[in-house]
Amino acid sequence: MSDLSAVKALIFDVFGTVVDWRTSLITDFMWWSRQRGISADWTALVDGWRAVYSASMDDVRKHPERGYVMLDDLHRRSLEKLVEQFAIKGLTDADLDYLTKGWHRLNPWPDSVAGLTRLKTKFVISPLSNGNVALLTNMAKFAGLPWDLIMSAELFEHYKPDPETYLGAAKLLCLKPGEVMMVAAHNGDLAAAQKNGLKTAFVARPTEYGPHQKVDFEATGAWDIVAKDFGGIADKLGC
């Protein structure tokens, strides 16, 4: 482990790293659809929804002339296409809103809240997520995530892994990049953070994508910390 004595803040990827988006959404939608009397393959819809996540953000990058579009709006656009593709009938606008807001109601991994609470005793902790501010704020209330502040791609009008996100987070905290540690379950996210001078911590979430998981079973880069969960990161940082 490298010298981390200068680190003052930890920033976290959220979807998959802090919260279990897949199980949360599938369980939520199955319960909700039973109350509404609507039948659909919610597992396939959720997997399909996440599969177009990166492409939806890439489209924003490719068309700066259209302006920044926050993740709630990208999720809604993708959902409308998937509902048509899966031929799900009988959904009202309020139903589509409920489903879109499912991303606001995600459950944390079992170690997340306790681990974050320990890390908060020594460091400033914040998300650095592609989720918009309202989404991340509502999620924190729902899941009991003890953030000190909410940092979102929306604040910088750039999605990760654009440098503006990582460097923007450090700037907002009045810290140098090397005083900030990015925590993620995704090697690609950490590679981008490291390239911009941030410290890095990897925690594996091998069930994030369920049976569809293909990458990120283990650390593949020279990260400053590799741990099995947030408690392990806290151990290594003396919290």
From TrEMBL:
SUPFAM superfamilies: HAD-like. The keyword Hydrolase applies. Keywords: Hydrolase. It holds the Pfam family Hydrolase. CDD domains: HAD_L2-DEX (cd02588). InterPro entries: 2-HAD (IPR006328), HAD-like_sf (IPR036412), HAD-SF_hydro_IA (IPR006439), HAD_sf (IPR023214), S-2-haloacid_dehalogenase (IPR051540). NCBIfam families: HAD-SF-IA-v2, HAD_type_II. PANTHER family: HALOACID DEHALOGENASE, TYPE II (AFU_ORTHOLOGUE AFUA_2G07750)-RELATED (PTHR43316:SF3), HYDROLASE, HALOACID DELAHOGENASE-RELATED (PTHR43316). This is Haloacid dehalogenase type II. It comes from Bradyrhizobium campsiandrae.
